[in-house]
Amino acid sequence: MGMPRIDGDRLWASLLALAECGATAKGGVNRQALSAEEHAAWRLVIGWARDAGLTASTDAAGNLFLTLPGSDPQALPVLTGSHLDSQPTGGRFDGVYGVAAALEALLALAESDVRPVCDVIAVAWMNEEGSRFAPGMMGSQAFAGVMSMAEIEAVRDAQGISVAEALAEQMAVFAELPRRSLGFPLAAYLEAHIEQGPVLEAREKVIGMVTGIQGKKTWEITLSGMEGHAGTLAMADREDALAAFSRIAQRLYEEIGGHDTMVKFTIGRLRVEPNAPSVVPAKVVFSIDLRHPDNPVLEHLGQRLLAICTEQTAPCRVAVKALVDAPSNLFDADLQAQIEASAKRREIPSLHLLSAAGHDARYMAPLCPSAMIFIPCKGGVSHAEHEWAEPTHVTAGAQVLLDTLLTLCTDTSRGEP
Ligand SMILES: [Zn+2]
Questions:
Q1: From ligand 1's centre to the CA of 46, what distance in Å?
Q2: Nearest of 67, 15, 24, 68 to residue 44 by alpha carbon
Q3: CB contact set of 42 (below 8 Å; sequence gap of 6+)
Q4: Ligand 1 mean position to 217 CA, how many Å?
Q5: ∠ CA(322), CA(323), CA(327), 5° rounding?
Q6: What residues does the ion ligand 1 have nearby, CB within 5 Å?
Q7: Distance between CA 333 and CA 348 in Å, rounded?
C-alpha cells in the first residue's frame, strides 16, 4: 500500500460540477457569498463528503467544515481550505480550488489505510471576496476574532439585505448541520490557491511555497492652495497646489518608490481643482497605495511618506486621510519547508514566492502555523471569467497538499514522552 494518492479526474470533475453553481454565459462564475448559488455549491461538497463518511458542520459565521476524524480526540485538528464565493465575473478556480483540493485530499486519506491521529478538516470560509458584503474575509476574521459577529451581521449588500439575514437564511436551508463553536484551537492551517499572478508560469514552476502576504497601506492626500490668474499672479506669490504635488510626487517616487525592489508604490488617482488651463490650481487630491512584505519597512516608509508630504507642501496646506492599514504576515517556515519537501519527493518543480493578493490564511497565521500552496494560472489572470488552471497543475497542487497534510496528521510525536 503506497501513499494516499489524489484522484486527479475526480478533482477535475468536482471543479467542473462546482463551476455550474453560478455559471455565467462566458464560462465564468458568479457565486456570491451566502447566495442560492453558494448554497448549491455547499450541497455538492457536503454530499461528496458524506458519501466518504466525513461529517459536515457549520458555525455562527457561516463557515462550512467537513471533518475526517482522527484517532486521538485530544490532538488538535489540522485545517485546510479556502472559499466558495466568487467575484461577479469570477473564474472557476479562485477559492473553489482550495476547497475542492482540500476535500479531495480528505477523500484520498479516507480511502487509504492511513488513519490520521488528529481530525483533518476541510473548510469553506464565508465571504472571502467581499463583493456582495464588504469587507471580504469575514468568515476567517470572525473565526480569528478579528471582527465581531455584531460588526459582520450589520453589513448590508446593495439590495439592503444584511449579513444577519443572509446567515439566518443559510442556517435555515442547512438546519440539519451541527453547529461548531466559532473559532477553535488548531495544529496547523494550509490553503491551496491559484497564484493570481504570473510568477510560477514565467518561471515554469508548478508549486509555489508562499512566504507571506504583503502588507498594504493606502491614503488620500489633499493639498490646498489658492486660485489665481495664470497671467497676472507672480510666481513668487502663488499657492499652487499642483506645484506642491509635483514636488511631493518627485520625492516620493525617488525616496519611497526607490527604497528597495520589494516596495510597491503607486499614485493611482489625481484630481486637480478647478482643473482649468488658465487658473493656478487651488486643490489637488491624490491617492497613495504602498505595499511591502516587511512590516517594519512598511511602517518606516509610511512615516517617511507622510513626512515628505508635510515638508514639501508650503506655501500650501496638507490633509492626510489614512484608509487601509493591513500589515504583512509571514507564513510558517517549517510548513513551507514541508511543502517544498513534498513537491521535491514528487519531482514537481517549485519555488518560494510572495502573495501580492490577500487570502483567508492571513487571519489563520497568528492562530497556528499556517502556509499556502500556489499553483499557476494561465497568464496570471484571475477575477475574470477566462481564469484557467491546467488539470495537471490542479492535481499536482492537491497531491502536495495531501502529502503535507499526511506529515501533519500522522505525526504521533506530539504529546508523547
Ligand atoms: Zn481567493
A1: 20
A2: 15
A3: 64, 84, 124, 174
A4: 20
A5: 95
A6: 94-95
A7: 19
Give the 3-state secondary structure of residue 83.
Answer: strand
Cβ neighbour number for residue 130 with a 10 Å cutoff: 16
User: Can you tell me the distance from the alpha carbon of 297 to that of 301, in angstroms, rounded to the nearest whole number?
Assistant: 6
Q: The whole model's pTM is what? A: 0.83
Ligand 1: distance of its center to the CA of 234 in Å?
A: 55
Q: DSSP secondary-structure letter at 229?
A: B
Euclidean distance between CA atoms 128 and 220, whole angstroms: 25
Tens digits of pLDDT across the chain (417 residues): 457 999 999 999 999 999 999 999 999 999 999 999 999 999 999 999 999 999 999 999 999 999 999 999 999 999 999 999 999 999 999 999 999 999 999 999 999 999 999 999 999 999 999 989 988 899 999 999 999 999 999 999 999 999 999 999 999 999 999 999 999 999 999 999 999 999 999 999 999 999 999 998 989 999 999 999 999 999 999 999 999 999 999 999 999 999 999 999 999 989 999 999 999 999 999 999 999 988 999 999 999 999 999 999 999 999 999 877 888 888 999 999 999 999 999 999 999 999 988 899 999 999 999 999 999 999 999 999 999 999 999 999 999 999 999 999 987 554 433
CB-count burial class (<10 Å; 0-12, 13-18, 19+) for 105: buried
**How far does residue 84's CA lie from ligand 1's centre (Å)?**
8
Q: How far is the CA of 98 from the centre of ligand 1 (A)?
A: 8
